[in-house]
Design goal:
single chain; alpha+beta; Nuclear Transport Factor 2, Chain: A; five-stranded mixed beta sheet
Amino acid sequence: MSVAAPTEAENALAASPEAQSGLAALPLADRMALHFLVEQFLFHEAWLLDQRRYREWLALVAEDIHYWMPIRRTVAVRDIDREFTRVGDKLYTGSSWSEDPPSRTRHFVGNVQIVDLEGDLVSVRSSLHLYRSRLEGVTDSFCARREDRLRRAGESFRLQRRHIYLDHTVIHATNLSTLF
């Protein structure tokens, strides 16, 4: 009896981040169902933020949330480890801009990938495009990579960690009081 060599697709799957995590042990149907649930959670979260339903959004957030968005810098390749700020690199100025009237936002979440599964924690990577319209003609557009960790909570999830990496090094917005 001969064993067929792995296909190109099987080799690619074996080299994927999912193969290195607890996700690989799940049957395909279970992985697909989990991916669907994660996407629906992220889409619902985005909708709540766009509707300014912050109390409902807060119900999706774990009490031990870690929410972090470092400032990106343009650096030479040799200094790539200094591209993002670290805790303590920047001090808050104390100035704050009002959201009156409130901004109108639209969150576009895509390229959702589950990269790890460990117990009740699901690590997710996604892309975000955030469009914001403010006042009579002020618009902002932000693109970012998000790395989230979701904790299972019954039939849904709670956002336990979010790291946001903006693609921008310069933000021209006059205020930034939007959740990503």
